[in-house]
Write a structure and sequence with these properties.
The chain is about 80% helix and about 0% strand. With about 220 residues, the protein is mainly alpha-helical.
Length: about 220
């Protein structure tokens, strides 16, 4: 019993450290924004640091994912699952966003508002941040919230506990300001987890995440540029 408690405690601590780590790179972006109009060299330095931190998190989370992987070798990319998963995310998030606007009068989540505030101030910041949002962040977050988290807790056949846990923890890092905005990101995380667990290949959830973020970043860019 004590051994089991220690194992669970170590796993919880590891996930907590990963959640903290994924929040560190944006700090470099915030520092870069302070110098976006005055010193491009400092901006370039902070953005290089930002990319380095993201790559380090991807390396770490990928190694952890491989250590806990219950599903074996990737089963292959499933285009139908990618398309269906993305459409499920769009439909569900549209419904929840409508309820968020209807009940809480929020036209966008606090997370999207924060992302939008980082765009349009400096060309290098905008380009690097968009690249990260579309490529680096989906890879890192999928390795953490799907690849590591879903394999670390519960047995292989317990899909729904894994899906719910993944979505819930995923949403905690997205600046929710009310229950519905929390559900928006929890729902997205659960769809991604379901696709990953049903296809046995994390590349499918990464692809969905990339497509979703690419379209979201395009919408934000249209608003600020």
């Amino acid at each position: 019993m004590i051994k089991v408690i220690r194992q669970w405690t170590s796993k919880v601590i590891l996930i907590a450290l990963m959640l903290i780590a994924i929040e560190v790179p944006p700090i470099a972006v915030n520092f870069a924004l302070r110098y976006s109009k005055t010193n491009q060299l400092i901006v370039d330095g902070f953005m290089a640091l930002f990319i380095g931190l993201m790559l380090a998190i991807i390396w770490w989370s990928h190694r952890t994912y491989e250590a806990y992987n219950q599903l074996g070798q990737p089963a292959g990319i499933k285009v139908g699952w990618i398309i269906g998963g993305y459409l499920a995310i769009i439909l569900g998030m549209d419904v929840l966003s409508y309820l968020n606007q209807l009940i809480y009068h929020q036209t966008e989540t606090a997370n999207n508002a924060a992302l939008g505030s980082m765009l349009g101030h400096n060309e290098v910041i905008t380009i690097v941040f968009c690249f990260s949002a579309v490529v680096l962040s989906p890879i890192a977050e999928e390795f953490i919230f799907r690849g590591t988290l879903t394999n670390m807790f519960f047995k292989r056949g317990n899909i729904w506990p894994k899906v719910i846990l993944s979505g819930t923890v995923f949403s905690t890092g997205h600046m929710s300001t009310n229950p519905i905005s929390f559900l928006i990101y929890a729902y997205m995380g659960m769809v991604l987890a379901y696709v990953y667990l049903r296809t046995d290949d994390i590349r499918n959830s990464i692809a969905i995440h990339m497509v979703n973020n690419a379209i979201a970043m395009y919408v934000l860019l249209v608003q600020v540029i």
